[in-house]
């Protein structure tokens, strides 16, 4: 095993110094998110200051937005806590461009990193295509069967790929709309057609909403070039809008907010989108999801677990949250059981 040989070599040379210091983890970010490089260019490699590095982990993050940033931070914090000073991170951001993910992960493969963390579906798809040998862990990926084209997916990929899912119960997200707007008639489902997991989510939410008696229309946009026009069309023809955990929307919430704010309520699949343009969400903690992914990585790096046998892990907790400013501007009062999204 490559990882074990690296450790043996370090031990024999007397260079490996393991620090006993560990950073505290509490479910909230303890350190600022690390800086990333320009898309497709080598990033400054970062490591915990204590000890000698034994592993290199490449991180490919699709875009710089709140949810993905939190997942990356949680991932790195969990690894640094378990393996202080032993891991060097090569963190690169594709700036929302899916083809750049392929460039980044191909660089990781050429560098023969010990593990690749793929943050968001396009990053996972690129990594899975680039290597069948290096362990790949995805995070912020909704449905792995959809992302990887696996029919009858049962929860374990069975190759060099595993990871964590950000899927919140979609039927409960639909029920949230019924809870807030029981008298609404039309719901517009706004999403980027280039993201297969967004399509999966809106299909499932539509089924649930139609069972409640709503008339639903899907409003797909191809990229940011037609996002504003499609959003305007959706807002003009819908009582309520729903946006899934869509990376393009997450990176451009201002477009949706400029069109919908104070006029059409938007329900979101995750907290970052809701904070930017939404009314309410049923969301997970992306930091905690990143921590779970980091713990999986530690097991793989140390030989405790085989990635091909690791099932996809899911967030254990979901929280109902609302956007105070948006609700006030719409003149609506949240139902009981919702927490205000923190301004910080």
TrEMBL record:
Keywords carried by this UniProt record: Signal
Keyword Signal appears in the UniProt entry: yes
Disordered: annotated span: 28-50
Transmembrane segments: none
Signal peptide: 1-21
InterPro entries noted in UniProt: ABC_transpt-TYRBP-like (IPR007487), Peripla_BP_I (IPR028082)
Domain of life per record: Bacteria
PANTHER family, A to Z: ABC TRANSPORTER, SUBSTRATE-BINDING LIPOPROTEIN (PTHR35271:SF1), ABC TRANSPORTER, SUBSTRATE-BINDING LIPOPROTEIN-RELATED (PTHR35271)
Name assigned to this protein: ABC transporter substrate-binding protein
Protein species of origin: Lawsonibacter hominis
Organism ancestry: Bacteria, Bacillati, Bacillota, Clostridia, Eubacteriales
